[in-house]
């Protein structure tokens, strides 16, 4: 249920008679993710679906940022870096190494350097 198109619209025979439908978010399981009685009038339905898509995007981004932030560990030594990588998390630290140092990190930890943000915690 959590994979695929982000919204499912359910319309049954009684819904057709009443001019309504059920809009289900795929990222929220069960009844909590469903909105019942949504009008099938085009402007109302499009407006509701647009609002729900924005909510889904905000929710997914928030979850991704939380996951990222919970899994980054600041390190200040090579031993700390290796320990963090072995635990399956991401290490963040200052880099002043050479290409040979980067190769050593890759060979010993299977990790690779990713990005160098301009604003680093505790940086200049």
Provide structural commentary:
With 124 residues, this protein is α+β, with helices and mostly antiparallel strands. The protein is 44% helix and 18% strand. Strands 1-2-3 form a 3-stranded antiparallel β-sheet. Strands 4-5 form a two-stranded parallel ribbon. Strand 2 and strand 3 form a beta hairpin. The longest helix has 29 residues. It is rod-shaped, with a radius of gyration of 23 Å.
Ranges where pLDDT stays below 50 over 5 or more residues in a row are: none
Structural class: alpha+beta
Helix content: 40-55%
Give the helices and strands as they follow along the chain. EHEEHEHEH
Q: How much beta, percentage-wise?
A: 15-25%
List strands and helices in order, with pairings.
Blueprint (H helix, E strand, L loop, with lengths): L6 E4 L2 H6 L1 E6 L8 E6 L2 H29 L1 E3 L3 H9 L3 E3 L6 H11 L15
Parallel strand pairs: 4-5
Antiparallel strand pairs: 1-2, 2-3
Put the structure in a nutshell.
By secondary structure, this protein is of the alpha+beta class. Helix content is 44%, strand content 18%. The model has no long low-confidence stretch (mean pLDDT 89).
Keywords:
single chain, 124 residues, alpha+beta, three-stranded antiparallel β-sheet, two-stranded parallel ribbon, 4 helices, 5 strands, 44% helix
């Amino acid at each position: 249920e959590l994979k695929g198109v982000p919204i499912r619209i359910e319309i049954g025979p009684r819904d057709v008679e009443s001019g309504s439908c059920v809009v289900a978010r795929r990222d929220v399981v069960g009844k909590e993710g469903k909105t019942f009685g949504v009008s099938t009038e085009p402007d109302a339905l499009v407006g509701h679906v647009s609002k729900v898509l924005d909510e889904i995007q905000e929710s997914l981004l928030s979850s991704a940022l939380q996951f990222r932030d919970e899994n980054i560990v600041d390190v200040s030594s090579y031993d700390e870096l290796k320990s963090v990588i072995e635990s399956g998390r991401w290490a963040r630290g200052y880099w002043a190494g050479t290409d040979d140092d980067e190769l050593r990190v890759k060979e010993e930890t299977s990790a690779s350097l990713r990005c160098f943000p301009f604003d680093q915690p505790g940086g200049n």
